[in-house]
Amino acid sequence: MAVMMLMEWEGVTPDQYEALRKLTNFEGNVAPGGRFHVAGFDGRGIRVCDVWERAEDFQTFTEKRLMPAVQQLGIKGEPKVQILPAHNIFAPGYQR
């Protein structure tokens, strides 16, 4: 069952996010189960909403790619993450 991942990470800057994008290459080498990603900033840090095929897919990406990159870049703090069952997914402008 698809899941929605919501993340809040205080203190993460746009420059840090761009460095993470480059280092993890999640757009060029899509992680198994990754379906949708959107990120924005609210002045306190980054906010992310993803759709994953399974929660385990997100966990694998986090353990094998995201957190090693975070450590390499020296990004501080811990994200607050929620995983919710996806009730509906609608993204007509972003079909794969």
Please tell me about this protein's structure.
This protein is α+β, with helices and mostly antiparallel strands. It has one domain (11-78). It is built from 2 helices and 4 strands. It has a 4-stranded antiparallel beta sheet. Helix 1 packs across helix 2. The radius of gyration is 13 Å and the shape is globular. The chain starts with a strand and ends in an 11-residue tail after the last strand. The model has no long low-confidence stretch (mean pLDDT 95).
Structure characteristics:
96 residues, globular, 4-stranded antiparallel β-sheet, 31% helix, 2 helices, alpha+beta
Total beta strands: 4
What about the largest sheet? 4 strands, antiparallel
Helix proportion of residues, in percent?
25-40%
Oligomerization: single chain
**Poorly predicted tracts of residues:** none
The sequence of SSEs as H and E is EHEEHE
Note the overall shape: globular
Estimate what percentage of residues fall within beta strands. 25-35%
Placed side by side, the strands forming the largest sheet appear as 2-3-1-4
User: Helix/strand/pairing class, anyone?
Assistant: alpha+beta
Average pLDDT confidence is: 95
Rg, alpha carbons? 13 Å
Tally of separate domains: 1
Distance between the termini: 18 Å
Counted by DSSP, the helix tally is 2
